[in-house]
Amino acid sequence: MLTLKNVSKTFNPGTITEKTALRNVDLYLKPQDFVTVIGGNGAGKSTLLNLIAGVINTDSGYIKIDGENVTGQKEYVRAKYVGRVFQDPMLGTAANMMIEENLAMAMRRGKRRSLSWGITAEEKKLYRTKLARLDLGLEDRMTSKVGLLSGGQRQALTLLMATLQKPKLLLLDEHTAALDPKTGKKVLDFTNEIITENCLTAFMVTHNMKDALKMGNRLIMMHEGRIIFDVEGEEKKKLTVLDLLEKFDTASHGEMANDRMLLN
User: Fold this and answer.
1) Burial readout 62-76 (b: 16 or more C-beta within 10 A, e: otherwise)
2) 148-204: per-residue pLDDT in tens?
3) What does pTM read for this prediction?
4) Are 102 and 161 in contact (CB under 8 A)?
5) For 44, left (φ over 0), alpha (ψ -120 to 50), or beta?
6) What are the residue ranges of helices labelled H in the chain?
7) What 3-state DSSP class applies to 104?
């Protein structure tokens, strides 16, 4: 479902602020893989997500989604294949539009627009059913402006929007990091539920090693722009946080580059 071959990215080349974010990365995701990605700050996790989504371009190598080479495609073109939930709950939704209007936009992702009514009665019924599953009371507030929602409500809505039209690939960029623990757990549980039910291929970046171990069937660790550890299935299930810390400590030669990894 996703192939990256020899992908590299350097920011500000030839300047004093030159930074190599990715170094010859090879990655292959099978359909329905749910991969969690961990690593210290500057490991290249967010850069990798942005390259897959088309926000930035590769310096070398290529990216394929479901067999199609999307390396040169713009972000808005690639959006028909990719659903994304950002770390910031304020991103991913239009604050000045109603909940049902946001869902209507998501429903039309990758489709041709027309001059027919924006939201049909049938669509409203569908949106109400989908929102009710969130158990946040949003099904009774469909005409409320999204800007009036809490961070957790917006993030749950964004997740619903990202998967309303089943994407070939779902990208989750630390999507619970800005939420309180209780709300974060609820959004994470809904994430797992919606990925499993829709048989999605997902790629989730997180700093929380417990979440990385709990979620998905595969775990990747990144360090200094490279994938240094890739484990799946039963081997992943046997891992502990201490195992991950030891792997990272070995790769970074004893320099724990990210205090948040320890705190989590």
Assistant:
1) ebebeeeebbebeee
2) 998 889 999 999 999 988 899 999 999 988 888 888 888 899 899 999 999 999 999
3) 0.88
4) yes
5) left
6) 45-53, 75-78, 99-107, 121-132, 151-164, 181-197, 209-214, 233-237, 241-251, 259-263
7) helix
What whole-number distance in Å separates Cα of residue 86 and Cα of residue 129?
24
* Token duo for residue 84: 């994304």
Whether 102 is in a domain gets the answer: no
Q: Determine, yes or no, domain membership for 115.
A: no
- Domain holding 16: CATH number? 3.40.50.300
**Residue 250 included in any domain:** yes
- Our CA angle for 47, 85, 139, nearest 5°, is 175
Pairing verdict, β 34-39 and 202-205: parallel
The domain containing residue 255 runs over which residues?
2-81+167-263
Q: Total domain count for the chain?
A: 1
DSSP 206-255: -S-HHHHHHSSSEEEEEETTEEEEEEEHHHHHT--HHHHHHHHHHHTTT-
Task: Report yes or no on 117 lying in a domain.
Answer: no
Which residues fall within 8 angstroms of residue 249, CB to CB, at 6 or more apart?
A: 256
